[in-house]
Amino acid sequence: MAEEMALQHFDPEQPHAMWRSLRATRPVSPIDRPNESGRQTYLVTTRAGAKQVLLDPETFSSSINGEHTGRFMGPMILAMDGERHCSRRLLISHAFRTSQIARWERELIRPIITELCAEIAAAGRAELIEEVISRFPVQVICGMCAIPAVDSPRFLQWAKDIHRGMLDEATGRAAAGQMRAYLEPLVEQRRAAPGDDLISDIVHSTIDGERLDDEEIYGFLRLLLPAGSESTFRATSTALLAILSTPGLVDRVRSDRTLLAAVIEETLRWDVSNSMVSRVATRDAMVEGCPVSAGSALLVVTNSANRDEGEHSDPEIFDVDRTDRRHIAFGLGPHQCLGQPLARMEMHVGLDVILSELGNLRLNPAYPVPVVTGASFRSPQALHVLFEERVSN
Fold it and tell me: Which of 244, 268, 286, 343 has the fewest CB atoms within 10 Å, measured from its CB?
């Protein structure tokens, strides 16, 4: 009964109350209606359940991702399992090597966010998500791919439309097609004359004589765009909201930037931007005492698992001094996010520069205090702030 009440009163903008109830009453909960493929679907809301599902790819396959996003994004490593996934991940991982990420920080990440802040510094006020934070990661990705910065707004729109594709397939297909049409001549140019950009890396990456084929290249680039831009700007927005709204925290971070690492990890634990991971059962299984039949879909709610009361005390509270900030924001197992070092780097540099370039940064009291909203994709919708031009730390 408690489970039925929780699902009945689901608030798509503020689902944490439902997830908390399900963790306590039925950590693996069937959803009444089948998914779009006709599969029985279960919500998995505890850390133990999430670990069981994500660490057992033979029983819980990622192939289900090809049934929804794969319809318009093409072949993705997100939907692959086993040896094929391993080989494709290795081919792509070279593009995210440590030396390359360090170069991107120096040549792209810090200069881009510094310039975006400089553009608004004299105004003294801004809606920071629209004017800075949402523009930042997509410009970084364009720079990584040697795509002209002037084209970054269309990439940001494609990223949003690709995410919407799970609810509006026509919009997702249109965005994926437009993105491919834009990228095709660039891929062919890099194939003929490689540079030091990410597209050149993945086009020419070879392991044991094997390369990504064209469909896999475009599938990866379509996946990189929303994962590397929208997810990162949402996480950065939530982190900045936490800094500005937690009593005393902004002053602490201003005087001690080493706290940023803790802020980022606590943000990822407290309210990660992508809340759910999809899997499909390849055989009958038992998860947290609940029988799951072969062919059933599972939605692992990482945002709920990160607030599991069995793992953390007062998990609903944002606490930068928490001694255990373990989380699964980037997943677990063979599909753990390949770009997490880059995401952490962008968040750290972005927050550092924003606090440096926008002096005395604070929430604008003329607007309601922002809150994090959303079910699958979470972040504040706006951050109206006041500030002064740059002051020295």
Answer: 286
Q: Return the pLDDT at 34.
A: 62
* 230 secondary structure, DSSP code: I
Q: Residue 67 is part of a domain; what is its CATH number?
A: 1.10.630.10
Mean pLDDT rounded to a whole number for the chain: 90
- CA dist 355 and 140 (Å) reads 19
Helix (H) / strand (E) containing 145: none
pLDDT band at 149 (very low <50, low <70, confident <90, very high): confident
User: Is 393 part of any domain?
Assistant: no
Domain membership of residue 315 (yes or no) is yes
The model carries a pTM of: 0.92
- 243 within domain boundaries: yes
> Cα-flanking dihedrals φ and ψ of residue 177, to 5°?
-70, -40
Q: Which residue range forms the structural domain that includes residue 178?
A: 2-388
**Total number of domains constituting the chain:** 1
Instruction: Flag whether 167 is in a domain.
Output: yes
- Summarised one tens digit per residue, pLDDT across range 196-241 is 999 999 999 888 888 888 888 888 888 887 777 888 999 999 999 9
C-alpha 207/C-alpha 30 separation (Å) is 42
Question: What is the spatial distance between Cα 104 and Cα 107, in angstroms, rounded to a whole number?
Answer: 5
Instruction: Annotate 24-34 with b (16+ C-beta within 10 A) or e (fewer).
Output: eebbbbeeeee
